[in-house]
Structure formats: C-alpha cells, structure tokens
Amino acid sequence: MDIIVLRSVFTVVCLCVFVGVTAWAYSRRNKARFEEAARLPLQDD
C-alpha cells in the first residue's frame, strides 16, 4: 500500500465522519436538546 492509497482512504474516512456528524447534528431527534442548550446563556440563575 503506497502513500497515495493511504491518503485516499483517510480522505474518504474523514468525509464519512463529517457526513455522520452533520446528519447527527441536524436530526430531528436531537432538536429539542440543542434548542435547550442554545437557551442556556440567556437563563438567569
């Protein structure tokens, strides 16, 4: 396995991780939790 193949595999793995994290962040299942976290700086103690 030469360095070009290794770099190509690494690029594909990074792309897959990016797509996975993006899909997780925009999933409807996590929307309520992220909206609650977004309001935390505005809440008074």
Lay out the secondary structure.
Layout: H1 3-25, H2 31-39
Task: Please give a structural write-up.
There is one protein chain. The protein has 45 residues and is an all-alpha fold. Helix content is 71%, strand content 0%. The protein has two helices and no strands. The protein has helices spanning 3-25, 31-39. The radius of gyration is 18 Å and the shape is elongated.
Provide a brief overview of the structure.
The chain has 45 residues and is an all-alpha fold. It has helices spanning 3-25, 31-39.
What overall form do the CA principal axes indicate?
A: elongated
Q: What is the average per-residue confidence, as pLDDT, rounded to a whole number?
A: 93
Measured as a percent range, the helix fraction is over 70%
Order of helices and strands: HH
Portion in beta strands: under 5%
* Backbone CA Rg: 18 Å
Structural class based on helices, strands and sheet pairing: mainly alpha
Alpha plus pi helix count: 2
Describe the main β-sheet briefly.
none
Please name the defining characteristics of this protein.
71% helix; 45 residues; mainly alpha
